[in-house]
Specification:
The protein is α+β, with helices and mostly antiparallel strands. Helix content is about 60%, strand content about 20%. A hairpin with a 2-residue loop joins strand 1 and strand 2.
Amino acid sequence: MDDFTITVSIADRSYRIKIQRDKEELIRYAAKSVNTSVQKYAENYAYSDKQDLLALTALEFASGLKGKESEFAEQE
């Protein structure tokens, strides 16, 4: 395995993570998607801290994933 460490920023915090080299583009895209969602919620909702924005983002992503799982199950 070709593991290495990268740093990604999510909601203005840096995280060092060890990943497989072939997953780097996916991980960076995912971090960018999270940040885009956090920014969208920050512009449209009142919040106490960024944890509120991250919770809304997690809910958005999880519900989207559940919707995709349902679509997949219906196709089988």
